[in-house]
Amino acid sequence: MGLSILLAVMLVITILPLAAQDRDVILRAEFPADSAAPPSLAGFEGVPDPAFVARIPDKDVARTILEEARWVFGGMVWGFSYTYTPSDKARSISEYFKIEPLTELSWSAPGLKVISARLDGTFVYAAVEWVLGDAERAELAAWRGIRFAAGQGRASARAFMPSPAGADFPGAAVIGRRDAMIAAAREALREYLRGIEHNKPREVRGSFAFASPPRMTLAGGAWTAVVRILIAVDHIESYGAY
Questions:
Q1: Which pLDDT score, from 0 to 100, does residue 170 have?
Q2: 3-state secondary structure of 119
Q3: Residue 216 β-bridge partners
Q4: Helices 58-77 and 172-196 meet at what angle, rounded to 10?
Q5: Distance CA 34, CA 13 (A)
C-alpha cells in the first residue's frame, strides 16, 4: 500500500421498481476495515517469526464494518440531534459539540445484509445493502425536503484511537473515522451559522442528517472526512448584554 490510501465510502441511493404501485428504496455502500491490529507500544515477546503481523479476528472485522454501516445509514435516514456552543475567547468559553443518533439502526433490521466482500492488502471492503421499509423511506424523503439548509465541512482525526476504558467496541478504527466525520459535521454547522448569525450564540440546538456519503481519506496517520449535511436549527440562545 502507498502512504496515502483513498477509502471512499460510496453510498448510492437506488430506486428500483417492484410494481406499478410501489417502489423499493435500497441503500448500498462499501465500507472498509483494516484487518491488521493498530500499532502497539508493547513488543511481540516470545514470537519466533520476525515477519509476524498481528491480525484482528474476522468476526471483529465484520462487526467493525456493520457498525459503521449502521451509523452511516442511520445518519442518512434519521439523522442526529446536536448541541453546539461556539468558542468565545472574550468569554473564556471553549467550543462544545455533541451529537446523538435520533434513531439507531438495529443489528437485526430487516433488509440489512452484506452482499459482497473483497480483500486489498490488509483492508477488507464489504458492500452492505439495506432495503428501506415504508417508515424509513418517509424519513429519508422528509430530510430531503426544501426546508433544510445544506452545509459542507472537512476535518481530520487520528486514525488509531484507544477504545474507551472498559469498552470492547467500536474500537480504534471506527472511533477514528467517526471522530473525523463528526468534526467535519461540526465544521459544516459552524460555517452555516456564521452566515445566519452575526453574534456568537450561547448555545444552538437542532438536528442534521448526512446529505451524501462522507468521503474518507487516510494519510499520515489521520483520517480526513468531507461531509455534506442537511441542517435544522431548532433553538438559538444568545448571551444578551454584558
A1: 46
A2: strand
A3: 7, 225
A4: 20
A5: 26
